[in-house]
Amino acid sequence: MSSRIAKLFASAAVALVTANAAQAETLVVVTGGSENMVDYVTDYLGPLFEEQNPGWTVKSLGTGPGDAGSQAVLEKLTAQKDQPTWDTDVIVTNQLKTAEMVTEGLLQKYRDQIETGALVTSDAAKMALGTDVDGYVMPMFMSQTAIAYNPDLVQDVPTSLEGIKTWSEANPGAFGYNGIKNGMSGVAFATAWIYAFGGSDPKTLMEGPYDAGAEAGWAEALADLKTFNQSVTFTPGNAGTLDMLNRGEIAMGPVWVDMFYSWQADGRLNPNLKITLPEPGMPGQPYYYAIPAKTAHAEAARKFIALATSPEVQAEGIVKKFNWYPGIDAQHLEASMDEASWDKLFTDVTPADLSEKAKPFPLGPFFTDLMDQYETEVSN
Amino acid sequence: MISSKASLLLIAPALALMAGLFMMPLGYSLLWAFREEEAQTWGIGNFLKAWEYYSADILFSLVIVTLATALIAGFSLAIAGYLTLGRSGWAVTLLRWLYRWPLFIPFVVAAQVMRTFLAKNGMMNNALVELGLLAPLQTASYLDWRGIVITFVWKQTPFVTLLVAGAMAAMDRAMIEAAQNMGAKRGRILLGIIVPQISRTLMVGLILSYVTMMSVLSVPMMINAQQPTMLTVDMAWRINAYGDYGVANALGFIAYLMTAGVAWIYLRGELQTRGGAA
């Protein structure tokens, strides 16, 4: 290499290094969730943070829906465990895996260090499927599953899981869900099935203590579910259920309420479709913001989460733009919201429905047993 | 002429790459299928669990791949046979031009194409309805085991056809012409004269296809939301949802045994032929 070219390269390298230093820092946000959650950080929250904090860039990464997406985050953090600093600053993960991360010491306590920490009082901010996560998490939003249906094809809308069972037997192939491997709405349906037909009081499953004896009636319920599965259509995912409903290939199926309303608002879903929350209820879950134990940017991470859980962002971003139920207490949002946007969330599923029939997922060990038994008894 | 030492030296980098990037991970995976992480022991626990959870999927994979292989054999012989014996010049040219297309399409794209093609309201059913062959209510989705088989067959047939047609083209045509002169029909010539001579090439193509199909994740994942499903999906599921590498490795081991079975049949045949010739 001639010395002229070498000099050119050297100066270019110096320019690059100094530019990087001047450019300040990057905040890495890793999201385990469906596409809409990644969009939320990429399109809305990230740019907002960058605007308020000049010099910062938010890099957002999605690891996919369901347990699998959050498991990927868990594995990423575990792999870096022995490093002095980790490359992930903020994570957004589901209850089951966040609880595991707290137990394994992969997260740091931060809620009392941010001003919005006091705005959350719900149980979901303290307990995740029976594990104490108090202080380690801020709920990003609450989401709920429900049964979506096409009123043109379903005349007598079933109001309970028992009703869905009978309806599906009379209309083979018209009920669709995504099993347990293709997203959480299917898992939610299987859970609701156990709440309804599992024999024991669902309260035990949700609040504990864990007792394998409470699973006595599961075998029969799961055998029933196996029979039920003979008359349903399997869909390729949370989005797949909505797609098939939209194309009229199925008439009814479990969906996430937020996804349902967002798709309808975007014109991606038949505006006539409706949702209902059947007896005895279906589970929902929050997704959590958490900070990995050894992040290099803890302060910026706290700032980011404080912004994300501020009443204004919760009102504008979570409720209005993305149709989720807020992660912080709803009373703090009233000042920032117009009534119409608020009411939109409660068109089909009323607040009374929610307080009566919105359930959490069962405790971690029950949940794992349920997934295991579904695989051995129902799908194999 | 280079010495054998020098030639060893020449292939050493390739061998090292094979050993490091292929043989070592494979050996590691096969070995660790027997590791029971929770109990910190070695044993067949992962295999018992794999069978308890996924026996239906193991059988399903076997049936799907075997069925697809059989269909590929039929189609590739039909296409290659027509390329060799077909009398209509333009039909042969068109076929020669068309059949290779799926070769250039990756599995994941093929799966996506089939998803829009085979859905209940997909292109295939719409076309049939438009042609008046089906009423809209009679349409059915093929996005289940049939979809997997169709995609596999569509994607792998050109590969086997390419090999088989090549072997057919290399044959001495005298025997075919003699049979034609004696008045033999084309089907009979194909099955009685050509196929026995190219059967080894056909076997190689089919075994390679079998192994390839066994390892595809995108097609069953994207096309078949039903139960049962193929082993690759279960392996991805065990790793992604549970971080359970033990059972995933055990499933991999089982898939390996299934392909090894085919390889063994092939090798035995090979040895017998060679033994007979020697």
TrEMBL record, chain A:
InterPro entries noted in UniProt: SBP
A Pfam family reported for this protein in Swiss-Prot or TrEMBL: SBP_bac_8
UniProt-listed SUPFAM superfamilies: Periplasmic binding protein-like II
Gene3D superfamilies on file: Periplasmic binding protein-like II
Protein name, per record: Bacterial extracellular solute-binding protein
UniProtKB/TrEMBL annotation, chain B:
GO biological process, one term: transmembrane transport
GO cellular component, one term: plasma membrane
InterPro entries: MetI-like, MetI-like_sf, Sugar_ABC_transporter
SUPFAM superfamilies: MetI-like
Keywords: Membrane, Transmembrane, Transmembrane helix, Transport
Keyword Transmembrane tagged: yes
Membrane topology, from the record: Multi-pass membrane protein
Domain of life: Bacteria
Localization, UniProt: Cell membrane
Transmembrane segments: 59-85, 97-118, 147-168, 189-211, 245-267
PROSITE patterns (alphabetical): ABC_TM1 (PS50928)
Main location: membrane
Pfam families, per the entry: BPD_transp_1
Similarity comment text for this entry: Belongs to the binding-protein-dependent transport system permease family.
Record's protein name: Uncharacterized protein
Organism field: Pseudooceanicola algae
